[in-house]
Specification:
Blueprint: E1 2-6, E2 12-17, E3 22-26, E4 30-33, E5 37-42, H1 51-59, E6 66-71, E7 76-81, E8 86-93, E9 99-102, E10 106-109, E11 113-121, E12 133-140, E13 142-149, E14 152-157, E15 162-165, E16 170-174, E17 178-183, H2 187-192, E18 198-203, E19 206-211, H3 215-226, H4 229-250
Antiparallel strand pairs: 1-2, 2-7, 3-6, 3-10, 4-7, 5-6, 8-13, 9-12, 9-16, 10-13, 11-12, 14-19, 15-18, 16-19, 17-18
């Protein structure tokens, strides 16, 4: 299976499937495909293994159903686009060589992937949309493609070396990395430091991928420009009135 990443700021993953080759993805991720590609949606993909396995996948931030795309009879083209500015990274997953990824990081993979909850902790109301902090565990035996938001910075941590990171910037790390959520020390630092209350502590050995644009930060930056539902209705009503007046004056 050949693949390429097209674009820079808003990249697209394009996959060239040989006849009989398949890719699985979270339902709703498809961007476009050729007519030779067929779809099959089920809760059994992605290491579902029955109702309990599907629930583990959902608990990690995935969906109850996944879709398998297969090239039938001839070569097929399949594409997945990112939803926000970021990068698409290929990773090889093998038994004993898995990854932990942020809750929306899985884009697609070859069959054999196992998705489940890797870490879950409530960090208080209003943080990360009130959903707490979640990590997916990416295991099995497959080639997978991961979507990280913004720019990506990679560090190789030696044994015992620790990097403390705002939780939203944690994109992905290898299974050998020890991961803990810690509190910022000092009441004054927590209340007035502006850096939040919690930090993720990642300790080697292993590789970590950090993302520069957490979705929570993007949502916070856009909030002042979105307005409320009532404001949107009022603006629409005012615009209609002004438009009617202008049309009347022009007659």
């Amino acid at each position: 299976m050949n693949h390429c990443v097209i674009g820079t700021t808003l990249p697209v993953l394009e996959l060239q499937l040989e006849p009989g080759e398949s890719v699985v993805a979270i339902s709703g991720e498809l961007s476009w495909m050729s007519s030779s590609v067929s779809l099959h949606t089920s809760s059994q993909f992605g290491g579902g293994g029955g109702f309990l396995g599907a629930l583990k996948r959902v608990a990690g931030g995935g969906s109850l159903f996944m879709t398998q795309y297969t090239a039938q009879g001839q070569k097929g083209l399949l594409a997945f686009a990112t939803r926000v500015p970021g990068h698409i990274l290929p990773v090889d997953v093998r038994p004993g060589q898995g990854y932990f990824i942020h809750r929306h990081g899985f884009l697609c993979s070859t069959p054999g992937v196992e998705l489940s909850v890797g870490f879950q902790q409530s960090l208080g109301a209003g943080i990360f949309g009130g959903d707490g902090f979640l990590l997916q565990r990416l295991g099995g035996a497959c080639q997978a493609w991961i979507e990280l938001d913004g720019e990506v910075v990679t560090y190789d941590l030696a044994r015992g070396e620790t990097m403390r990171v705002h939780p939203g910037h944690v994109g992905m790390f290898t299974e050998g990395v020890d991961f803990q959520i810690t509190r910022i020390q000092g009441i004054r630092n927590m209340l007035f430091g502006g850096d939040g209350i919690f930090l993720a502590s990642l300790t080697g050995p292993g590789r970590i991928w950090l993302q520069s644009l957490p979705l929570s930060n993007l949502a916070h930056a856009l909030r002042p420009y979105l307005g409320t539902a009532s404001e949107s209705v009022q603006d629409a009503t005012a615009g209609a009135v002004i438009g009617s007046v202008l049309r009347g004056l022009s007659r």
